[in-house]
Amino acid sequence: SGYHRVLEENRKLYNQVQDLKGSIRVYCRVRPFLSERSSYVSTVEHIEDGNITISTPSKYGKGCKSFTFNKVFGQSVTQAEVFSDMQPLIRSVLDGYNVCIFAYGQTGSGKTYTMVGPKDLTEKNQGVNYRALGDLFVLAEKRKDNFRYDVAVQMIEIYNEQVRDLLVIDGKIHNSSQTGLNVPDASLMPVSSTSDVIDLMNLGQRNRAVGATALNDRSSRSHSCLTVHVQGKDLTSGTILRGCMHLVDLAGSERVNKSEVTGGRLKEAQHINKSLSALGDVIASLAQKNTHVPYRNSKLTQLLQDSLGGQAKTLMFVHISPEPDALAETISTLKFAERVATVELGAAQVNK
Ligand code: ADP
């Protein structure tokens, strides 16, 4: 009926507006049970639209807590389905927007699976990083009569507040161009096909693993960031558009019990806490439209400064594990995420 058409059009318009403003979206994904633990009962009681309900049994009886996000993906959702929901955001990089996507959650909750994929990587289970670049190439090709796009990538790791270039070859930084760099002193590599991307991702993962052998799976305690720089030239007007996208696999968000760790491990934990709370503070302060945004409180927020706030689009992608022994971390992850999300959901309610 006409009424429903109007409603539908309003909804579309509303979504477009939401899509355009410098907003923060929050998605949540639940990892499936790993096979050896499939006899466990999931703490996830119910998922519907953007709502997730977690059962919180205690000695006083059965309880539950619900959280609301822009999207919630259950255990059976595929990599392709997850990506299709992020596609518009990624495509806006070609229109000159800056985009930031964070994978947040405790170690083992599926952050790397979402961003990169599993160890036995196939085309079907590739994560966001591969799909995002593949998609940019497809779209750039479609627009080739009107635009010429150049794409270049950087890959870095932040560990204990130190930035490490992951695309070094034989210890050398490769800087083939100097435009639009906001990660100084890290190799910037041009890419023009998915196979270029696969080669570089492999190089980055090899370089990342070099540090890991020395420090026992340090990858869960460092942030890794794939930055994609896109420059588009409008072939009729000659106008140059620049967009940039950061795809960040954050360090595990688990709280470390101070009494259990000392020395290097404690220092790592303190650095992780510091940078994750700095990220939370930046997001909160952007949301409150504060004039002073505390970007300089961590390496992570410093590096992402151009891509957080303003016209930039941010997606916080939180991950949770379904096992009962992860319950405390699951609740704390969802609370952090909800603090980030309230901002946007609050604004959305005003518009409804
Ligand atoms: P994190 O990066 O948060 O530490 P991982 O991505 O390494 O966690 O995930 C932990 C394990 O669970 C890995 O073996 C990974 O392949 C598996 N896993 C995570 N998410 C999924 C998923 N959606 N489907 C299948 N396996 C998954």
Automatic annotation (TrEMBL):
Kinesin motor domain boundaries: 23-343
Residues that hold ATP according to the record: 105-112
Family membership: Belongs to the TRAFAC class myosin-kinesin ATPase superfamily. Kinesin family. KIN-14 subfamily.
Annotated protein name in UniProt: Kinesin-4-like protein
Organism: Gossypium arboreum
